[in-house]
Structure formats: structure tokens, C-alpha cells
Amino acid sequence: MSAPVSTAVLYTPEVLGLAVRLAAHGWDGDLPFKAEARSPSCGSTIALGLALDGEGRVERVGVRSQACAIGQAAAAIFADAAQGRTQADLAAAAQDIARWLGGEAPLPEWPGLSQIAAARDYPARHGAVMLPWKAALSALSGRAANG
């Protein structure tokens, strides 16, 4: 009989601190670009709102979360570093993160992502990691985000 996989490696004090930090990026219904994303593997959901500056760069981020600690931490990591990025930047980051989660690439250079790097070893949490990028791209493209 194999030993159960410990989630202590996954739910570190740093991850839990990021989940709490998400409060710094509270929901604002007045943000012009909004979307929700849901992870079918764990059921986590987030709603994300964005405002862009005149050059199409993220100026503000607001998040409403009903996600696991990993989803909340990923949303905080996204929100902390999204300012100044374009839709193309966010799409490239999402692709890099998905490739990393799939074992096809090294850890992407998104600030703070290393704090949830252990989630790569938990495929059921991959969808939660991707939530903020999926919601942001959906908000900016006007499509619904799932998966």
C-alpha cells in the first residue's frame, strides 16, 4: 500500500499568504472587462475584472474568488504582476504556464510563480493555476472561459 500524497508541500505558508493577499485586489464591478473562469478538475472559480490604459496595457485588476488556495494564490500572483501587460503578453504567459504545467517547458518568468511551483506535481490543481490567465484572456476577448 502506497503512502498518501502529502499536500503539506502544496499548501505552504507562502501559498496561504498569497491566498490572503488576494484581498488587495478586490472585486470592482465598474471594471470594463470582466469574465469568469472555472476549473473542471477541482471546481474552483474566479471572476476577474480589468481596466486598460490608453495603450491597451492592464491598469487595474479586481478579483472575486471561490477557488482553492492554489487558485487564490495564482490569482494573487497574476494580479500582482499584470499591471502594464498587454493582451498579447498575457496570452504568451498563459501558453508558457500551460506548457510548464504539462512538463514541456521550464518555469516561466512570471513574478511570484515559483511560490506555487509545487502545484505542477498535482495535475488536479493545474486548472486552478490557469484560472486568472484564462479569465483575463476571456475578458479581453469577450468569450466565456472554462477549463
Provide a short characterization of the protein structure.
It is built from four helices and three strands.
Description:
- This protein has a three-stranded antiparallel sheet.
- The protein is of the alpha+beta class and 147 residues long.
- α1 crosses α2, α2 packs across α4 (126-141) and α3 (87-101) runs antiparallel to α4.
- It contains four helices and three strands, in the order αβββααα.
- The protein is 36% helix and 16% strand.
- β2 and β3 form a beta hairpin.
- The chain has helices spanning 13-21, 69-81, 87-101, 126-141, and strands at 33-38, 45-52, 58-66.
DSSP summary: helix tally: 4
Strand order of the largest sheet: 1-2-3
Work out the strand percent: 15-25%
Mind describing the biggest β-sheet? 3 strands, antiparallel
Which key terms come to mind for this protein?
147 residues, 4 helices, disordered N terminus, alpha+beta, globular, 3-stranded antiparallel beta sheet
